[in-house]
Write a structure and sequence with these properties.
five-stranded parallel β-sheet; 55% helix; 292 residues; single chain; alpha/beta; 11 helices; Four Helix Bundle (Hemerythrin (Met), subunit A); Rossmann fold; 2 domains
């Protein structure tokens, strides 16, 4: 895995947080720091890129609370919020406590989460975080498609990586709303991929490639096809995905349009086609780099 693990640290000691952030960076961990529970939980609830959370032993619950009133009950408020996240959204986020006085928490948190000591057990904490993140189901998906995700790491965004993980994890889900969401995600990923191909293989922004009176994504695809650099079957996958996702990736069809609609079989077929598009792009861009 080339990309660093993104984790959240909730701690009101700004100087210590900067010290820990620098140390974590050398351990393939990228820390984003928040000074109270409300802000930290808002961030983790709204961004799948955060894979774990580190809690101070005592911190404020929100921006209005004065730091001197912070109590150890903060930890249990945080655990409640994380439990709600797991139960309501089926999203488990590994966590631990990192305190100047670990002895105050070890007994009460036995069997719930490990407690580490600030400045003394950082290495053990980083090891725990990596192991917990690697044990999550989405990391198994990533390992099964290492070559694809290495390409995503190099040429697409962290958000794109999370979207690809999401659609791969839910490709078999037959719920109509999930199918619509998957199709919408795949069109977005296809657009991001085509933008990366235009910039890194064709040497210009996709918006500057004019070929026909159509979207920039289709313009790039037709340009690649006409230049005979894009295999016909990859072009076919790309156009099928674009058409189906454009038509059915916005809402669940109703009325006459609902007589026969995309199913999880459709999603699986399209997602495998998308993966082949990623593989072709990886080979094409790497070959171009070698020539340069």
């Amino acid at each position: 895995m080339k990309r660093r693990y993104n984790i959240i640290l909730i701690d009101d000691d700004v100087n210590y947080c900067e010290e820990l952030r620098r140390e974590a960076n050398s351990n393939k961990i990228k820390i984003v720091h928040y000074q109270n529970l409300a802000d930290g939980m808002d961030a983790i609830e709204n961004a799948n890129k955060f894979k774990a959370i580190v809690l101070d032993g005592r911190c404020t619950l929100n921006a209005n609370q004065k730091p001197e009133t912070a109590k150890s009950s903060f930890v249990f408020h945080a655990i409640n919020r994380l439990n709600e996240l797991e139960h309501e959204f089926n999203r488990f986020v590994p966590f631990c406590v990192n305190s100047e006085t670990p002895q105050d928490f070890t007994e009460d948190l036995y069997g719930i989460c490990p407690v580490f000591e600030k400045r003394k057990t950082h290495r053990e904490m980083f090891k725990f975080l990596r192991e917990q993140i690697n044990a999550q189901p989405y990391m198994q998906i990533r390992r099964e498609h290492d070559d694809i995700f290495d390409f995503v790491d190099d040429f697409l965004s962290e958000e794109d990586e999370d979207l690809l993980l999401d659609v791969l994890a839910n490709a078999d889900n037959g719920d109509p709303a999930t199918i619509v969401a998957n199709l919408s995600i795949m069109r977005r990923l296809e657009e991001a991929l085509v933008d990366a191909i235009a910039l890194n293989f064709m040497g210009q922004s996709a918006s500057n490639i004019g070929h026909r009176n159509m979207s920039r994504t289709k313009n790039v695809l037709y340009q690649l096809k006409d230049k005979r650099v894009l295999p016909q079957f990859i072009f076919g996958f790309a156009m099928d995905l674009y058409k189906v996702a454009s038509r059915y990736g916005n809402h669940v069809p109703a009325g006459k349009n609902a007589e026969y609609i995309p199913t999880s079989y459709t999603v699986r077929a399209l997602v495998y086609g998308l993966m082949d598009m990623f593989r072709w792009a990886d080979v094409a861009i790497q070959n171009k780099m070698k020539k340069n």
